[in-house]
Amino acid sequence: MKATHLFAAAFAASLGFTSAFAGGEGWTHDFAAAKKQAADEKKDLLMDFTGSDWCGWCIKLNDEVFKHEPFKAGVKDKFVLVELDYPQDKSKLSEETIKQNDELQEKYAIQGFPTILLCDASGKPFARTGYQEGGPEKYVAHLDELRGKKDARDKALAEAAKAEGTAKAKALISALEGMELEDAVAANFYPEVIEQIKAADPKDETGFSKKIEEKQKFAKWESELQGFAEKQDMEGALAFVEKSAADFTGESKQKILATKAGILAQSGKFDDSLKALAEAKAAAPDSEIAPQLDNFKERIEEMKAGAADEKAGADEEKKDEAKEE
């Protein structure tokens, strides 16, 4: 088998073929084969969702990390490397690979590139990352740290198996939250854990079910808002946002009010925008995005000042024109 593989490689080289993988040798496009290899070799999967011929950060990650020997040496005993490419030039990939990649993008809820997922041999994700500066050695150390999330997951699940009631629910919640995965990813790959939480905590003393329902409700809201954006219906979007804000609380309401502020700012209604932004900040002052709202406020104030200067300049021009007449 080794001789056959070497002959095939030599034949390809003689024809001038080069690696189809942005990261160079050692990567595969075949997800099913990668899972089998990972299971056989007792390794994890490192899945690189990339845009090899258009995504600047993807290209930087390849050039600064993946192509270098310290990275290859640092991961060879731990990971099977899977490159899932979404190039502009589709001729680089077979129809089968394109179909596979599209399905995986949806299943793993990939929204941006590069996205790096660490998964166990079955394909269940346990950590997520992307571009990190510092070179190959630092990136390998970063991956080693992320691998600890799998151990934490497995430990929490083992503790949950021994517990009952809310104690069981809390251990299961700890397993999910420790991985810091997108909600859609958790729902796709850990549905049994979510159902066990609900069964162990039927009165929702942990607040987990309420949190899930709120997120699902917000996701539906985002989808409806997208419809207005596609039609470029600013007035309709503003009316929709104003009507729906009362149906949410906490961080969800904060995001909706911040969206309202953005729409108003784009419409040139800067005072109303700043008012909406203040309401957004008050809705959840200790949230993760609350500090970002301060930066947003500064930007709106700059836009307001710029618009005022532009108006003053236009008024001066009108006065000058009137004098000339």
TrEMBL record:
First and last residue of the signal peptide: 1-22
InterPro entries: AGR/TXD, Thioredoxin-like_sf, Thioredoxin_domain
Keyword match Signal: yes
Ranges of residues in domain Thioredoxin: 6-148
Alphabetical keyword list: Signal
Basic and acidic residues bias: start-end ranges: 295-325
Region: Disordered, residue numbers: 285-325
UniProt name for this protein: Thioredoxin family protein
Protein species of origin: Luteolibacter luteus
